[in-house]
């Protein structure tokens, strides 16, 4: 904390050891400004750090031991010092330092500003080149992007393979079709279909079974309607009503095949009825053409009412 400090006795001892009102040190009156000295020291330290990093990476690549690494570093330092003294290496030569000397009559502030302007670009470049954070970040994002692209390509390949699997035919080697395919599934049940709703039917009925079921159903409905009627005088009327009701319910609940059979039977019954009436007319001696037409129309209406 700010208010914390040493004891008075310790402070007096430190002041005595440091001395008081002594002559200035030799470095205190040097011509080189403190700012320039700090810049040069920072540049040298950064160069030394980069050199150590290069040596470390090269020694790791070569697989050297700790002792061999130390010897290689010492040899590199000796070579660098020699080159710097001769001015032939990549060190900082005498020409660069001579350019930054203070000029006669130049003020210290102007000289410091000139040093900062001269070294600003080099310092920024050295800082940017020696920072490995940016390069590591760039490599990380490049690897991440490549990984995402590989995942997308793999997903597209799997999707294309699945689509191909759904549409391709599974044909075995040397397979030959010997018969047409057989369908074992039942057709979908329709509304108001009494025949398909019957649980005792395991499969769809054929035409022969269909006619038998129609006959059984007609007899059942006819018996129920006749039992519901009363009196013998209305027997003919009840019979026609029963037949008409059976016809309507039958046509409503029949399948297309059943309707086709009923229509064919109806047409055949009408033709037979017309032939019978024609024979009767021939036996009686015949009638006029007009009378025959009227009788034929009446016969058709009577046959339709009878349910043929």
TrEMBL record:
Q: Which domain of life is it from?
A: Eukaryota
- List where Low complexity composition bias occurs: 72-82
Renumbered residue ranges of the record's region Disordered: 1-159, 223-260, 279-308
Which residues lie in Basic and acidic residues bias regions? 9-24, 41-59, 107-128, 141-159, 225-240, 279-293
GO cellular component: a single term: nucleus
Lineage, top ranks: Eukaryota, Fungi, Fungi incertae sedis, Mucoromycota, Mortierellomycotina
What InterPro entries does the record tag this protein with? CCDC137
Q: What is this protein called?
A: Uncharacterized protein
